[in-house]
Write a structure and sequence with these properties.
Arc Repressor Mutant, subunit A, about 55% helix
């Protein structure tokens, strides 16, 4: 699996921003290859719907069929890339690009809220209750420093994931980072 799919076309970003497609792509990235039927059962969708959305994801280069299925009758899908990336400034140059980034940010927030709800509705051992959570802070940064923060954060997440990849007791953990400048009233 390649590491990053860099998008410059607003239509491609908007295509993946569909709520069902975001969930399907996330599941394939996190849990590995699956069939449309398996994904349909997991997300409460029809297999026709998941099959359609998987074909759309394939059309835009996000997923592909597994070349050697376990069974000739099954059609297994896998993610082609680990991450999706785009340039906010590049896409902000057109109304379509601004709309596509708005859609994608909304999907990212929806996924974050879904992970939080799932966490809150499940029983977890005390170690997980103490380790999980959210925090926020407001600091003064320059754009270059914020870009460095994003890069270092991503590097740290990858480092920790490699460290615990096969560790007993490790779980899949949803990690999000959002950082935006805030204009204060004058």
């Amino acid at each position: 699996m390649a590491d990053v799919y860099r998008i410059s076309d607003p239509a491609v970003l908007k295509a993946v921003a569909h709520p069902v497609r975001v969930r399907l792509l996330g599941a394939l990235r996190t849990d590995g290859p699956a069939t449309a039927t398996e994904l349909a059962a997991r997300f409460g969708e029809s297999s026709g719907s998941t099959s359609y959305h998987l074909r759309q994801l394939a059309r835009f280069g996000f997923v592909e069929e597994v070349p050697e299925p376990r069974d000739r009758r099954e059609r297994r899908w896998r993610s082609v890339h680990r991450y999706t990336s785009w340039s906010n400034s590049e896409l902000a140059a057109t109304p379509e690009g601004r709309e596509a980034t708005l859609f994608m940010r909304q999907r990212q927030i929806d996924v974050l809220v879904g992970h939080w709800r799932d966490f809150e509705s499940a029983e977890w051992p005390v170690e997980w209750l103490d380790a999980a959570g959210m925090s926020d802070d407001s600091v003064r940064l320059r754009p270059s420093t914020l870009a460095e923060l994003h890069d270092r954060f991503a590097e740290l997440v990858r480092e920790m994931a490699e460290h615990d990849a096969d560790a007993p007791g490790a779980e899949v953990v949803a990690v999000s980072m959002a950082a935006f400048p805030v204009r204060r009233p004058t």
